[in-house]
From TrEMBL:
Keyword Transport attributed: no
Any GO CC annotation of this UniProt entry: plasma membrane
SUPFAM superfamilies xref list: P-loop containing nucleoside triphosphate hydrolases (SSF52540), TrpR-like (SSF48295)
Entry protein name: Chromosomal replication initiator protein DnaA
Similarity remark: Belongs to the DnaA family.
Disulfide bond is among the record's keywords: no
Example of a GO MF term: DNA replication origin binding
Length: 283
């Protein structure tokens, strides 16, 4: 919808989420979509550090007015990793005025970050407030079925037969992002090509031994549930139950919040792990 109507209701568009979840890919896709519909549109994509570098260069060359004209004449400004503006006061000041000028001109602004706008430390409150004026979208880690589909598609693109149970085995253990999934599969394929062995679960265990060992050391939902239940002197079964009494509801909310913060599970997966709750109840 942003590509169809840049500068419309979803302005600015703010995408946030962890590394490797496809924010940059989505940013490029929207930019390309705008150009496809309006070939003469001036769409500028850059990393936030490039904006800072351009501004510093303009100041050094006494060309700040040219800098302003360039950035304020675009039809769409796409900036990746806006959190790198943190503690750069002059850059934030200039971007604040650029942001206002673009918004007043109905020119599209799309930003990405690794965290929710109000959680970006070192960025002025007036900017963080403006980041949320349009549409803010959380990019969540892919769910299990999606991870399996990604692996199967990637294997198919490489003309590799990947058994479904093997794809499920990998997807169940690597949850953080698409980049990690694809990297793991590339390693499995390379090992299979080098050794001439078939891709089985045992083969994957061997090929990804260090990666799987690292995953086992990470915080899990099971560990969180056990720790919270022990702290509040209740049973894990209580956390998974439908009980809504304060003595259970509060620990449950705490456990779900910790699962969201400390694990790479998607919200639907966290909801499922707590008795099949709707993911919208995960705080």
């Amino acid at each position: 919808q942003v590509a169809d109507n840049p500068g419309g209701a979803y302005n600015p568009l703010f995408l946030y989420g962890g590394t490797g979840l496809g924010k940059t890919h989505l940013l490029h896709a929207v930019g390309n979509g705008i150009i496809a519909r309006k070939p003469n549109a001036k769409v500028v994509y850059m990393h936030s550090e490039r904006f800072v570098q351009d501004m510093v260069k303009a100041l050094q060359n006494n060309a700040i007015e040219e800098f302003k004209r360039y950035y304020r004449s675009v039809d769409a400004l796409l900036i990746d990793d806006i959190q790198f503006f943190a503690n750069k006061e002059r850059s934030q000041e200039e971007f604040f005025h650029t942001f206002n000028a673009l918004l007043e001109g109905n020119q599209q602004i799309i930003l990405t970050s690794d965290r929710y706008p109000k959680e970006i430390n070192g960025v002025e409150d007036r900017l963080k407030s403006r980041f949320g004026w349009g549409l803010t979208v959380a990019i969540e880690p892919p769910e299990l079925e999606t991870r399996v589909a990604i692996l199967m598609k990637k294997a198919d693109e490489n003309d590799i037969r990947l058994p479904g149970e093997v794809a499920f085995f990998i997807a169940k253990r690597l949850r953080s992002n698409v980049r990690e999934l694809e990297g793991a599969l590339n390693r499995v394929i390379a090992n299979a090509n080098f050794t001439g062995r078939s891709i089985t679960i045992d083969f994957v265990r061997e090929a990804l031994r260090d990666l799987l060992a690292l995953q086992e050391k990470l915080v899990t939902i099971d560990n969180i549930q056990k720790t919270v239940a022990e702290y509040y002197k209740i049973k894990v079964a209580d956390l998974l139950s439908k009980r809504r009494s304060r003595s259970v509801a509060r620990p449950r909310q705490m456990a779900m919040a910790l699962a969201k913060e400390l694990t790479n599970h998607s919200l639907p997966e966290i909801g499922d792990a707590f008795g099949g709750r709707d993911h919208t109840t995960v705080c």
